[in-house]
Amino acid sequence: QVHLVESGGGFVQPGGSLTLSCTGSGSVLRDNPVGWFRQRSGGIQRELVAFINLGDATNYSNSVKGRFTISRDNAENMVYLQMTSLKPEDTAVYYCYVPLSPYWGQGIQVNVSS
Fold first, then answer.
1. pLDDT, tens only, 65-75
2. 3-state helix, strand, coil in the chain (%, to 5)
3. Residue 90, phi then psi, degrees to nearest 5
4. Interior CA angle at 9 toward 6 and 13, to 5°?
5. Closest residue by Cα to residue 110 from 56, 51, 54, 49
6. Of 99, 110, 92, 112, which Cα lies nearest the Cα of 2?
7. Which of 80, 82, 84 is nearest to 67 (CA)?
8. With b meaning 16 or more CB within 10 Å and e meaning fewer, what string describes 41-67?
9. CB 49 within 8 A of CB 63
10. Residue 88 in 3-state DSSP?
11. What distance in Å separates the CA atoms of residue 14 and residue 22, rounded to the nearest whole number?
């Protein structure tokens, strides 16, 4: 069974930075495209904010473009989401996602508030 685990969330002031990490069982992160979704409190749908394919090409939602960076470390089987210039509207639960099956992490809370 595949497991994805996010870490690195927490509280940060507006304008601050956080880096989320996703680790996965086996080689799931190294061998598949990976995305980061988020779901705001009270939100119905999860929003795809960043995606990295097997060739390491990346895509971002307009809401985070220029502020967030997704990357992978194949040697460590990790995927990261570096978040800068954080805004209160970035507050959400963030999920690591692999489209195979698909697989989801349990989610991690990010709170941006003064």
1. 999 999 999 99
2. 5, 50, 50
3. -80, -5
4. 160
5. 49
6. 99
7. 84
8. eeeeebeebbbbeeeeeeebeeebeeb
9. yes
10. helix
11. 23
One-letter amino acid at 8 equals G
Structure tokens at 41: 């409190």
Residue type, 19: T
* CA-to-CA separations, 87 to 22, 28, 46, 68, 69, in angstroms, rounded: 22, 31, 18, 12, 15
pLDDT in tens, 14-53: 999 999 999 999 899 999 999 999 999 887 899 999 999 9
Beta bridge partners of 47: 38
Beta bridge partners of 64: none
